């Protein structure tokens, strides 16, 4: 059935079987969004779990979508789907308290080393000496917390998008402006003000969609160092959005 006809029939009747047809029609959109997020959260969750979370977002999008507002359903739905997945991931809170405590020690050690020695490239060995942890422990903590930092940032961006943009789609008009202009400006400003290596990591990770291993090979540093740079960059950017 033609999409426009299907939507029109659903809006007029709200029949469950028509809603199910819309869900089936756009399920691939859920898989696309879940696939992108799986690259980040795959160490903690199954792809099927992400799809399940995303389906709730799709259903919510179908329920709340208004065709009279000048925005494509696919654009609107992706925000709802992504938001639903991030929300579920946040609620799962998979990082043990002991790991969070170690991550705090590592962050404090990095800050101390940066402020005291002005060393551009802080090594895992330096952090190990400062914290009393082994290099393996540090690398393990970095790997476990890297996805958490991404969740935290994406959650804030989604919250800003939901609050500032989806509340009145008519005022935003083009789908390119679904993310509030002020949030975009702050995010761009935050990225521009990052130190060069952190800026490179953010660019390669989010825009080029490279893995830590691939980024490490390009920058000539270890995966744990990439994770470290990523975490520091996310913290700086989040501060710009507070």
From TrEMBL:
| Record flagged with keyword Calcium | no
Q: Which UniProt keywords apply?
A: DNA-binding, Sigma factor, Transcription, Transcription regulation
Q: Which domain of life is it from?
A: Bacteria
Name the UniProt record assigns to this protein: RNA polymerase sigma factor
Can you supply a Gene Ontology BP term from the record? DNA-templated transcription initiation
InterPro entries annotated for this entry? RNA_pol_sigma-70_dom, RNA_pol_sigma70, RNA_pol_sigma70_r2, RNA_pol_sigma70_r4, RNA_pol_sigma_FliA_WhiG, RNA_pol_sigma_r2, RNA_pol_sigma_r3/r4-like
State the PROSITE patterns in the record. SIGMA70_1, SIGMA70_2
- Residue ranges of the RNA polymerase sigma-70 domain? 49-62, 211-237
- Keyword Cell membrane listed? The answer is no
What one GO molecular function would you report for this record? DNA binding
Entry similarity comment: Belongs to the sigma-70 factor family.
Classification via NCBIfam families:
FliA_WhiG (TIGR02479), PRK06986.1 (NF005413), sigma70-ECF (TIGR02937)
Q: Which species does this protein come from?
A: Tindallia californiensis
A Pfam family per the record = Sigma70_r2
